[in-house]
Design brief:
- This protein is mainly α.
- The chain has 2 domains: 44 residues, Arc Repressor Mutant, subunit A; 130 residues, Tetracycline Repressor, domain 2, CATH 1.10.357.
- 76% of the residues lie in helices and 0% in strands.
- The chain has 10 helices and no strands.
- The chain starts with a helix and ends with a helix.
- 27% of the residues are buried.
Length: 192
């Protein structure tokens, strides 16, 4: 078994424990057992719990919705880029909800989770800044809306918290995506 395969097994074990809402109370031994490796092997690949959670970030980077979102921001039509970005952000949250709900839920007490959430927000801010600047540079935004204001709106509309609030209010993924796309158009784009 190669080192990369072993690492993937450990990361898969962490994802499973997160999905089952058991990671934060799990020991390194339990992660190792789930992965079918020794405790020492876990430590060979990951120095700490923070490193284990960092590896989860790598799995997010490979999520098809996130990959496509990065491409959507530069679609030729800025309006289409806006709508597609909202849809893909919601698809990402939906696909990773079981993992993220566990991580976001323990941010106050788990430094690994706090670090991951902070980095995830910073990454999203960077992507949304690119879109806001593009909308502003192309004259696509409603009169009086700056790139900074557009960024604020995009951060709220694409946040995990917004996704969770609307899902908890009973909206299907399809309906909440449609509502957020409508809000994005109303708040950022000129009326046609």
């Amino acid at each position: 078994m190669g080192a990369q395969h072993t690492r993937e097994r450990i990361v898969t074990a962490v994802r499973e424990l997160l999905r089952e809402q058991r990671f934060h109370e799990s020991t390194v031994e339990q992660v190792a057992e789930r992965a079918g490796v020794s405790r020492a092997t876990v430590y060979q690949h990951f120095r700490s719990r923070i490193d284990l959670v960092d590896a989860i970030c790598e799995t997010f980077d490979a999520n098809p919705a996130l990959i496509e979102l990065r491409r959507a921001i530069v679609l030729p039509d800025p309006r289409a880029a806006l709508v597609r970005t909202i849809a893909l952000a919601m698809r990402f949250w939906e696909s990773e909800d079981a993992i993220l709900s566990e991580l976001y839920g323990v941010v106050a007490v788990d430094p690994a989770a706090r670090d991951l959430v902070d980095r995830q927000r910073a990454d999203r801010r960077g992507e949304m800044r690119r879109l806001a600047q593009r909308l502003h540079a192309t004259g696509t935004l409603r009169a009086g809306i700056s790139a900074a204001r557009a960024l604020d709106v995009l951060m709220v509309l694409t946040s995990y918290e917004t996704y969770c609030e609307l899902r908890e209010a009973g909206r299907s993924a399809k309906r909440l995506t449609a509502e957020l796309e409508t809000m994005a158009r109303a708040l950022l784009l000129p009326s046609l």
